[in-house]
Amino acid sequence: MGKRFIFFYFMKKEPEKIRGAVPLHIEYWHELKLNKYLGGPFADRSGGMIAFEAGSIEEANKITNSDPFVIQDLIESKWIKEWVVKEPEERT
User: Fold this and answer.
1) 35 phi, psi to nearest 5 deg
2) Do the beta carbons of residue 80 and residue 64 sit within 8 Å?
3) In the predicted model, is pLDDT for residue 48 greater than 60?
4) Best CA proximity match to 3, nearest among 84, 88, 91, 86
5) Neighbour-count burial of 79, counting CB atoms closer than 10 A to its CB (0-12 exposed, 13-18 middle, 19+ buried)
6) Global pTM?
7) Can you list the domains of the chain with their CATH numbers?
8) What are the distances in angstroms from CA 67 to CA 23, 88, 89, 90?
């Protein structure tokens, strides 16, 4: 079992370029088939958040740095953080 990471990012104000890169971004993440993947854009389309498992922060950075949004310099700011997920305790 890998560590859980969150990739949180805000987009630059370049809607035409972003629109053109969205299909590549979606395809990239789907083709990775990462464990515990969950992601999507914010409702206002200012950015998005992706949760996934990776073996280390270095591996997680390598994955996020290969995102087409990053490669095409469409992200204004981004963070990647290890996320310690706490499961709810069972109720009796």
Assistant:
1) -65, 145
2) yes
3) yes
4) 84
5) exposed
6) 0.89
7) 3-78 (3.30.70.1060)
8) 11, 32, 35, 38
